[in-house]
């Protein structure tokens, strides 16, 4: 599995002073539906403390929208989703590979943290 650094960097945003990635972008990388990824996270809440997973408030969502515009990045996040996106810090991204438990998840984790 080959991911370009530019593609990955375009999926990283700043929220609360931390680099984060959207659940929908990570789902695309992991080859799963966003809902499936989020269900796995909800089933394993103890693996995702506050420093691994951020639930953005309305101001932070607006800030993300501004970051999308500045980056001119076509994110997979649909602004009209029913729920706010889950935002994963670097530690949260690493933990995702353990709850998704697939070969692709392992390869994505290596690409993102390597």
Task: Briefly characterize the structure.
The chain is an alpha+beta fold. Helix content is about 50%, strand content about 10%. The chain has a 4-stranded antiparallel beta sheet.
Give an account of the 3D structure.
This protein has a single domain (5-113), classed as Mlu1-box Binding Protein, DNA-binding Domain (Roll), CATH 3.10.260. α2 packs across α3. The two termini are 13 Å apart. With 114 residues, it is of the alpha+beta class. Helices cover 52% and strands 11% of the residues. The radius of gyration is 13 Å and the shape is globular. Strands 1-2-4-3 form a four-stranded antiparallel beta sheet.
The number of helical elements comes to: 6
**Percent range of helical residues:** 40-55%
Biggest sheet strand order reads: 1-2-4-3
The 3D shape can be described as: globular
What is the fold named in CATH at topology level? Mlu1-box Binding Protein, DNA-binding Domain
- Roughly what fraction of the amino acids lie in strands? 5-15%
Report the biggest beta sheet as strand number plus sense, adding barrel if it closes: 4 strands, antiparallel
SSE ordering = HEEHHEHEHH
Outline the low-pLDDT stretches: none
CATH class descriptor: Alpha Beta
Q: Return the domain count.
A: 1
Overall average residue pLDDT:
83
Descriptive keywords:
11% strand, Mlu1-box Binding Protein, DNA-binding Domain, alpha+beta, 4-stranded antiparallel β-sheet
Blueprint (SSEs and pairs):
Elements: H1 5-9, E1 12-15, E2 18-22, H2 23-30, H3 34-43, E3 53-54, H4 58-71, E4 87-88, H5 90-100, H6 103-113
Antiparallel strand pairs: 1-2, 2-4, 3-4
